[in-house]
Amino acid sequence: MKVILQRSKNSKVTIDNKVNGQIEEGLVLLSSFTNGDNEEIVDKMIDKIINLRIFKDENNNLMNLSLIDINGSILNISQFTLYADCKKGRRPSFVNALNPEGASKLYDYMNEHLKTKGIKTETGIFGSDMKVEIYNDGPVTIILDSDELFSK
Prior knowledge:
Layout: E1 2-15, E2 18-23, E3 26-32, H1 39-51, H2 67-70, E4 73-78, H3 100-116, E5 120-123, E6 131-145, H4 146-149
Parallel strand pairs: 3-4, 4-5
Antiparallel strand pairs: 1-2, 1-3, 1-6
Helix pairs in contact: 1-3
């Protein structure tokens, strides 16, 4: 599983010219799944994401509070292209991306699990053509890869 997270002041996702999800202060997640990913890996990634200390505190210390500490929100966007393999040729291969059925299930699980942790979670629609506007705060952008963080 790979997640690109961006600290955000205000972000939204639009589908067919209609806002589907919008947040104020929090995180925008671009989330992707690969073969071998499961609910246990998603749970570990969620724990890492919501507890990362990447928000300013009351003394303006730049990286001191977590999403939970600031009562922030998440805008989670499915992004299978994070598993693009561009080693050969000019067209990316997506053989490392989890099949759509499996990825959709894990994406839905991730969003529901975030909500059960009390995180306001907005989403795109899996497999849709989405327009994402991200007002990146900082900018702060962090790449999380479960293969690097946890052993499968």
